[in-house]
Amino acid sequence: MRLLSPSLRRLALTVHIVVAVGWLGAVLSFLALAVTGLVGSEAQTVRAAYLAASVITGAVIVPLSLAALLSGLVMALGTPWGLVRHYWVLVKFLLTVVAVALLLLHTQPIGLVATVAAERPLAPAELQRVRIQIAADAGAAVVLLLTTTTLSVYKPRGLTPFGQRARRRRVPAS
Amino acid sequence: MAPASEGLDREPAGTPRWVKVFGGVVLVVVLLIVVLHLTGLGPGVHAP
Predict the structure, then answer these.
(1) What is the pLDDT of residues B3-28, one digit of tens each?
(2) A87 to chain B: which residues are within 8 Å by CB?
(3) Per-residue b/e over A94-121, b at no fewer than 16 CB within 10 Å?
(4) Which of A33, A70, A108, A168 is the most buried if burial means most Cβ atoms within 10 Å?
């Protein structure tokens, strides 16, 4: 892939930061709703929490996660960093792929609880394991996204074997 | 913000320690999840 021009690179970086940080914010909101749904004592609050969580998932979290993955790929392939040259880029990419895959898989239990909540109030112990899973997944997603954000800011050093070979080709030993 | 290409040519060779530590943490977490699933203690249920 051809490298991006400096102005396009700034634009792509801005988009990537906005969608990635937006994704983290949306997942934090989702976590608050999932915990409210799990421990809430008022039936209406619990129903509202799961309905809102379902809307946030479909309208915000899934689109932002896909946009973060896509814009991250553009940033990696369109700049000298590359996708597999530096460990921090590779680790961040793999974590993002895992996060998107798990998110897409876990829209099913969220939809299930939201469908029940839309029909009637949930009993405190009803769908308990699925509700615990939803909250636990959201907590794990927050940790994962904080990790990718930290990697992006600190950019810890380290070339992959591919990156080392590419560097040797670019700068031959004298 | 630092330029995106900063440090590109000053990378040390070999696998850095942070990658090894990170890999170890990921391995422990994955093993923990597998054990929880196998023992039936983990949530890991998608539908009733």
Answers:
(1) 445 455 566 668 899 999 999 999 99
(2) 15-16, 18-19
(3) ebbeebbeebeebeebbebbbebbeeee
(4) A33
- A87/B47 CB distance under 8 A: no
> Which of A82, A80, A103 has the alpha carbon at shortest distance from A6?
A80
Tell whether A81 is within 8 A of chain B (Cβ): yes
- Which ranges of chain B would DSSP assign to H, the alpha helix? 17-39
**How far are the Cα atoms of A34, A122, A128, A137, B31 from residue A47, in angstroms, in the given order?**
11, 7, 14, 19, 35
Angle at A157 between CA A153 and CA A159, to 5 degrees: 125
Q: What's phi and psi for A86, nearest 5 deg?
A: -115, 135
Decide if B16 and A87 are in contact by the 8 Å CB cutoff: yes
Tokens 């040390």 belong to which residue?
B12
CB A83 within 8 A of CB A90: yes
Is the ipTM higher than 0.85? The answer is no
pTM for the full predicted model: 0.85
Q: Which chain A residues are Cβ-neighbours of B5 within 8 angstroms?
A: 79-81
Helix (H) / strand (E) containing A69: helix A62-77
Q: Which residue on chain B is closest to A91 by alpha carbon?
A: B19
